[in-house]
Amino acid sequence: MNAMPDERPRLDAEEAATLAGLAARVRELTEAAVLTGVDAAEAAAVADEVAALTARLGAERREFPPFAASPDGVRMDRQLANPVTGPLNPLAPPIELEVTSDGIVRGEFTLGPVYEGPPSYVHGGVSAMVLDQVLGMAAAATGTPGMTATLELRYRRPTPLGVPLLAEAKASRVEGRKVFASGTIAAPDGRVTVEATALFVMPQRFVTSQY
Amino acid sequence: MNAMPDERPRLDAEEAATLAGLAARVRELTEAAVLTGVDAAEAAAVADEVAALTARLGAERREFPPFAASPDGVRMDRQLANPVTGPLNPLAPPIELEVTSDGIVRGEFTLGPVYEGPPSYVHGGVSAMVLDQVLGMAAAATGTPGMTATLELRYRRPTPLGVPLLAEAKASRVEGRKVFASGTIAAPDGRVTVEATALFVMPQRFVTSQY
């Protein structure tokens, strides 16, 4: 039941850019659907049109989400449809992460009303999802990508919606197939809103990893 | 910057059902966009059609996501567009949660390829997001809803995509504005894949809460 990397469709940069554009439009549609105030007849008519577009996209359907064609090493960002960072996934904000030469993973992102938990604030689970990904990338940047084994989050203050947030993480220690990492989300004033620590473990069968 | 509950649009059951249908169609479109294998010209043409539908929905735009018109007490499920449970939010699987008479919150759900982390498995951050919500509902079920203060996750085995998963949680202790809760996600064979414990704290200004 585990899909091996070689089974994954590979997209070149141009194909990926076209599908990223499609995902960006679906992301905008998602927000419009959550905030729309049109009447029920119009909402139902739009829903029918959406179903027709789904059928058009489904005329050719892949079995698995695609990977990038030219991975630069063992990196999670091969996953073009990752639910946090993937430009091809309408669920993802998305977050573009950079890895500095000293192994810090960093990305700026803004979360709109579709990610809301308490009114005007980011859902606590969404912050957890983002931090799992960013810490996981920091683990992968050591050359030992892994699956999350433990993740601990401390929410220091509410995380605001609609403003640029900064996520950062770094691996602190590698022990064989285990990598320890920590990171934060910070508000535009620089104050940390959520702190995380995690342990990632590379499964033995993934040693030539598909991440 | 905090939106007070009275500012939120309220939807009656019929309006909510129509918009839930729209969200379900956008959810299907999201999956189709991630898995489509149509050529670039067709993907770009569909993207243009999606943009036109976004414009139609945006003809009347609310400032905030809507709440249910008839809340049954202080409950997070008033949030029709919650990113985990909200039937009106295309990002949400969604998960319909029931609260038993002894305070257990429980819901079955299936996660498709848009929630993928490691190939064929649920993204660790998505499991974290789901558990934050389910434990938060268990906290709210005590009558003391709160914001996440700490969340600790232990990943015992990979969580499979495409099969029915069971999320369960229960509050263990209430101390003033603090509620401790724990819960799990289990695979169809009954084995727990992820365990979580959390502390939720009701902000003092939310004592007549908008959750």
UniProtKB/TrEMBL annotation, chains A, B:
Classify the protein's membrane topology as the record does.
Peripheral membrane protein
Reaction equations catalysed: octanoyl-CoA + H2O = octanoate + CoA + H(+); tetradecanoyl-CoA + H2O = tetradecanoate + CoA + H(+); decanoyl-CoA + H2O = decanoate + CoA + H(+); dodecanoyl-CoA + H2O = dodecanoate + CoA + H(+)
Q: Which UniProt keywords apply?
A: Apoptosis, Cell membrane, Cell projection, Cytoplasm, Fatty acid metabolism, Hydrolase, Lipid metabolism, Membrane, Transit peptide
The UniProt record lists the Thioesterase domain at 121-192
CDD domains associated with the record: PaaI_thioesterase (cd03443)
Q: Where in the cell is it found?
A: Cell projection, Ruffle membrane; Cytoplasm; Membrane
Please list the GO biological process terms of this entry: fatty acid metabolic process
Q: Under which EC number(s) is this enzyme classified?
A: 3.1.2.2
Q: Which domain of life is it from?
A: Bacteria
The record's annotation in InterPro entries points to: HotDog_dom_sf (IPR029069), THEM4/THEM5_acyl-CoA_thioest (IPR052365), Thioestr_dom (IPR006683)
Q: What are this entry's molecular-function GO terms?
A: hydrolase activity
Enzyme class label: hydrolase
Q: Which family does it belong to?
A: Belongs to the THEM4/THEM5 thioesterase family.
UniProt-recorded name of the protein? Acyl-coenzyme A thioesterase THEM4
